[in-house]
């Protein structure tokens, strides 16, 4: 008889050991955004909306870079199961080359056309002015962000997850201090408003990259990575990276399109709804840090286990994962629904209309997150990290373009309330649970992606 929960204590130990630093890193990253939102919130609805619109390109970059980082982690974790560090170094180098190229291209585009980019998301001239000012300076941080994400991904795939937490913690302190000084004009500096928030983010990213580089090059004793490794590559591994990485990156592009389209749809309702979307996105990110940390830990465990050829043990882990995250989703959803009003009250300077809309949005989000908490660890932590990366891309594409965006556009055109449109934009989080349950329990996603080669 199959056990519902595994008795292997290593699974629970590794889940907690790997998840906590990743979750804390994500939490700290969230706190940077929250600090920006709360401090910029003192400048009013247009400033909050402008920063939200300006950060959409950062979100696009984050999705693209995350896709590259996930490709590094998926392949690297499986090689880590075989203790093949040479190939992990090569995979990291390939990831850096792709990521830095993407960051440089987006920096150039945003530096040259910031206003035109913001106009894509909103017609409001006051929001456009604030968003343009923010994006013009924020884009300087893109290359640093790209380098950091791949370096930290290389550490995660060898089960070193505390580096990102430390780098993000220092970055948070730098960002908050500089926000206070530059946004409001303290210590003799002029009050720069949203421009000050962008400059603070740039400097914080530079510090974060410096810490990641120092650890990877000078402290790490697993990969022994050197700057010269960036110039080295491997044709076979590059083909593998492209083959398995393209569905991951394309999946993140699909989600970037989804997020930007969602912003455009909600942006047509005006500044109060855009502000509500910004506030709700902050709560969504807060919940996401916990879910993503655990899902990332599941992904590392999955890659290592399959790379080592332990498929029967992986079946046990998969059943346990489903039970844990189903229960966790119910708890997270109930808590967010209960404290929606208290959370929105933190934004003391937004309008009463925006606050009321925010409460409705957050309560819709609470219901949807119950599904997110189950399907995300299943589809990312098990299916994608287990080697079936193409399935998740196809599944996301179908839901975004055939369910999410069409339903939201129809609801919007029929004059539905903003919270109804928002529910349409999030409905896939519940619907995907059915797909995740069927796919995971067929166990046809377990695929060893490693190549034979030097095991050191």
What is the topology?
Blueprint: H1 9-41, H2 45-81, H3 85-112, H4 114-119, H5 125-138, H6 142-156, H7 162-184, H8 194-219, H9 235-267, H10 271-307, H11 311-338, H12 340-344, H13 352-384, H14 389-413, H15 418-426, H16 428-440
Helix pairs in contact: 1-7, 1-10, 2-3, 2-5, 2-6, 2-9, 2-10, 3-6, 5-8, 6-8, 7-8, 9-14, 10-11, 10-13, 11-13, 13-14, 13-15, 13-16, 14-15
Key words describing this protein structure:
single chain, 456 residues, mainly alpha
Task: Please tell me about this protein's structure.
The relative contact order is 0.14. The protein starts with 8 loop residues before the first helix and ends in a 16-residue tail after the last helix. The chain has 456 residues and is mainly α. The model has no long low-confidence stretch (mean pLDDT 87). It has 16 helices and no strands.
Q: What is the CA-based Rg, rounded?
A: 21 Å
Unreliable spans: none
Question: What spatial form do the alpha-carbon principal axes imply?
Answer: globular
Give the amount of beta strand, in percent.
under 5%
Secondary-structure-based class equals mainly alpha
InterPro entries: MATE_fam, MATE_MdtK, MdtK-like
Function: Multidrug efflux pump.
Pfam family, one: MatE
Organism: Candidatus Pullichristensenella stercorigallinarum
């Amino acid at each position: 008889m199959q056990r519902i929960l595994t008795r292997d204590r290593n699974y629970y130990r590794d889940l907690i050991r790997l998840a906590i630093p990743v979750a804390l890193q994500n939490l700290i990253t969230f706190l940077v955004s929250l600090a920006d939102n709360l401090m910029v919130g003192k400048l009013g609805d247009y400033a909050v909306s402008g920063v939200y619109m300006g950060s959409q390109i950062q979100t696009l970059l984050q999705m693209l870079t995350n896709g590259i980082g996930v490709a590094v982690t998926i392949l690297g974790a499986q090689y880590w199961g075989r203790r093949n560090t040479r190939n992990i170094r090569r995979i990291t180098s390939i990831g850096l080359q792709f990521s830095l190229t993407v960051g440089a291209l987006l920096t150039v585009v945003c530096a040259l056309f910031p206003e035109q980019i913001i106009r894509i998301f909103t017609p409001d001239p006051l929001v456009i002015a604030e968003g343009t000012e923010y994006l013009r300076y924020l884009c300087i941080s893109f290359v640093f962000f790209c380098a950091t994400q791949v370096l930290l991904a290389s550490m995660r795939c060898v089960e070193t997850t505390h580096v990102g937490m430390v780098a993000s913690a220092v970055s948070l302190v730098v960002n908050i201090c500089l926000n206070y000084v530059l946004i409001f004009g303290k210590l003799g500096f002029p009050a720069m408003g949203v421009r000050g928030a962008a400059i603070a983010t740039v400097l914080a990213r530079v510090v974060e990259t410096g810490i990641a580089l120092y650890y990877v090059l000078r402290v790490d004793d697993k990969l022994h990575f050197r700057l010269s490794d960036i110039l080295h590559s491997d044709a076979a591994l590059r083909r593998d990276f492209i083959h398995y990485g393209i569905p991951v990156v394309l999946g993140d592009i699909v989600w970037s399109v989804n997020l930007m389209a969602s912003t455009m749809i909600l942006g047509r309702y005006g500044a109060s709804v855009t502000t509500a979307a910004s506030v709700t996105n902050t709560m969504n990110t807060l919940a996401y840090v916990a879910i993503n940390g655990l899902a990332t830990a599941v992904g590392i465990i999955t890659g290592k286990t399959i790379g080592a050829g332990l498929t029967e043990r992986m079946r046990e882990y998969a059943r346990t994962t489903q039970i844990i995250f189903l229960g966790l989703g119910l708890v997270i959803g109930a808590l967010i629904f209960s404290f929606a009003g208290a959370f929105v009250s933190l934004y003391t300077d937004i309008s009463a209309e925006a606050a009321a809309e925010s409460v409705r949005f957050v309560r819709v989000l609470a219901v949807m997150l119950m599904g997110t908490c189950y399907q995300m660890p299943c589809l990312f932590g098990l299916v994608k990290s287990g080697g079936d990366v193409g399935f998740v891309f196809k599944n996301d594409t179908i839901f975004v373009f055939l369910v999410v965006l069409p339903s939201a556009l129809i609801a919007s055109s029929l004059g539905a309330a903003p919270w109804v449109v928002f529910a349409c934009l999030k409905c896939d989080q519940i619907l995907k649970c059915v797909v995740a349950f069927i796919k995971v329990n067929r166990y046809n996603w377990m695929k060893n992606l490693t190549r034979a080669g030097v095991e050191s």
